[in-house]
Amino acid sequence: MQGWWWRDPYFMRFMRREATAPFVAAYAAILLAGLASLALGESEYNEWLEALKSPLSIAFHCLLVAIFAYHTVTWFAIMPKTMPPVYLGGKRVAGALITGAGIAAAALSSILIWILVSRGAP
C-alpha cells in the first residue's frame, strides 16, 4: 500500500495541492508573529517589519506567492466538481466558466490589494 497514490494522476494532483498546506500554516505563523509583535509595542513591531525585508524573507515570500497561486488555480479547478450545479437563464453554467470566474476574481482582488498596499499607509 505504500505509495499507492503515486500510480494515479488524480491522486498525484490532489497530493500536490495538499502539500501547499504547510506553507499556508507557515505564513499564518508569520502573520501571528507580526500581531504578537504589534501587541508588544512599536519597537517590536518595527523589528518584525525589518525582519520581513531580509533577503531570506523576500525569497520565502516569492516562493509563497508561487505556491499560493498554484493552490488558488487548483482550488478553483475543482470547484465545479464539488458544488451543486449552477443554472443561469435555464442553462447549466459550464465548469470552465466557474473556474475562470474564480481565478479572475482571485487575480483581480490580489491586484487591488497589491495596489492598496503599495501606496503605503496614509
Structure description:
This protein has 122 residues and is mostly helical. Helix content is 76%, strand content 3%. The protein is built from five helices and two strands; from the N terminus they run H-H-H-H-E-E-H. The protein has helices at residues 9-18, 21-40, 42-52, 55-82, 95-118, and strands at 87-88, 91-92. Strands 1-2 form a two-stranded antiparallel ribbon. Strand 1 (87-88) and strand 2 (91-92) form a beta hairpin. Helix 2 (21-40) packs antiparallel against helix 3. It is extended and about 60 Å long. The relative contact order is 0.07. The mean pLDDT is 91.
Uncertain parts:
none
Shape: extended
Number of helical elements: 5
Helix content: over 70%
Distance between the termini: 58 Å
What's the number of extended β-strand segments? 2
Query: What order do the strands of the largest sheet run in, or round the barrel if closed?
Result: 1-2
In terms of DSSP E residues, the strand content is under 5%
What structural category do the secondary elements indicate?
mainly alpha
In angstroms, what is the radius of gyration?
Answer: 19 Å
Order of helices and strands: HHHHEEH
What is the residue-mean pLDDT, rounded to a whole number? Answer: 91
Keywords for this entry:
122 residues; mainly alpha; two-stranded antiparallel sheet; 5 helices; 2 strands; 3% strand
Short characterization:
The chain has helices spanning 9-18, 21-40, 42-52, 55-82, 95-118, and strands at residues 87-88, 91-92. With 122 residues, it is mainly alpha-helical.
